[in-house]
């Protein structure tokens, strides 16, 4: 009996040592930075972080340039900056670009690459859809000017639901992922399976969603021909390539 109790005490002592070691290990693990620490940053800190990492101020860059001598107003979204999400600054920059193009009678190009509205800004980000669409209405309907939307991968959410699909001509890149709601969201919400390729350029083109599917290499010449067809010509005829 004495031998049994001694062995049992040693066994219990060994088990307690293992539990203590495990507890210490778990505690150390919990004190390590979480993988979700990026998500726990404040919105301002995340903006500062992306600005340092990308060298960009926001998820869209806008400006005036030329394509084979034809002046154009151009906006380019960058997915590397918070997934190209559309917040108040993005909406304001695109709206001002459209208004500038309207006042100066310039053709407009917007290259879309976005995960949609920026959730950190709540309803303010959703309001950008209406603001941009209103500016486009004046540009396209009232002034009869020409807007080309170029959809790259991915283009989703509020960008797809607004200016992404409002182009007079909509061009998509091959094999691009283009949708409103993502595959996972649809499957979880509707409890259905979304077939592979259903939200890619080639399938959507067959259904009539785009006017053209154009790879990047010939895109410049395609845009130049489109603008000239719609009576936008080079400032200098010698600049035509």
From TrEMBL:
Question: What are the alphabetically sorted keywords of the record?
Answer: ATP-binding, Chloroplast, Fatty acid biosynthesis, Fatty acid metabolism, Lipid biosynthesis, Lipid metabolism, Metal-binding, Nucleotide-binding, Plastid, Transferase, Zinc, Zinc-finger
Q: In which pathway does it act?
A: Lipid metabolism; malonyl-CoA biosynthesis; malonyl-CoA from acetyl-CoA: step 1/1
| Signal peptide segment | none
Provide one Gene Ontology biological process annotation.
fatty acid biosynthetic process
Q: Which domain of life is it from?
A: Eukaryota
**InterPro entries under this entry?**
AcCoA_carboxyl_beta, Acetyl_CoA_COase_Trfase_b_su, ClpP/crotonase-like_dom_sf, COA_CT_N
- Looking at the record, which segments are called Disordered? 23-47
**EC number(s) of the enzyme?**
2.1.3.15
Q: Which GO terms describe its cellular component?
A: acetyl-CoA carboxylase complex; chloroplast stroma
Single annotated GO MF: zinc ion binding
Compartments annotated for it: namely:
Plastid, Chloroplast stroma
Any keyword 4Fe-4S? Answer: no
What Pfam families does UniProt report for this protein, alphabetically? Answer: Carboxyl_trans
Residue span, CoA carboxyltransferase N-terminal domain:
1-241
Q: Which residue stretches does the UniProt record annotate as biased composition, category Acidic residues?
A: 29-39
- Give the function comment from the record: Component of the acetyl coenzyme A carboxylase (ACC) complex. Biotin carboxylase (BC) catalyzes the carboxylation of biotin on its carrier protein (BCCP) and then the CO(2) group is transferred by the transcarboxylase to acetyl-CoA to form malonyl-CoA.
Assembly and oligomerization:
Acetyl-CoA carboxylase is a heterohexamer composed of biotin carboxyl carrier protein, biotin carboxylase and 2 subunits each of ACCase subunit alpha and ACCase plastid-coded subunit beta (accD). Acetyl-CoA carboxylase is a heterohexamer composed of biotin carboxyl carrier protein, biotin carboxylase and two subunits each of ACCase subunit alpha and ACCase plastid-coded subunit beta (accD).
Task: Spell out the PANTHER family in the cross-references.
Answer: ACETYL-COENZYME A CARBOXYLASE CARBOXYL TRANSFERASE SUBUNIT BETA, CHLOROPLASTIC (PTHR42995)
Q: Which family does it belong to?
A: Belongs to the AccD/PCCB family.
Annotated protein name in UniProt: Acetyl-coenzyme A carboxylase carboxyl transferase subunit beta, chloroplastic
Gene this protein is translated from:
accD
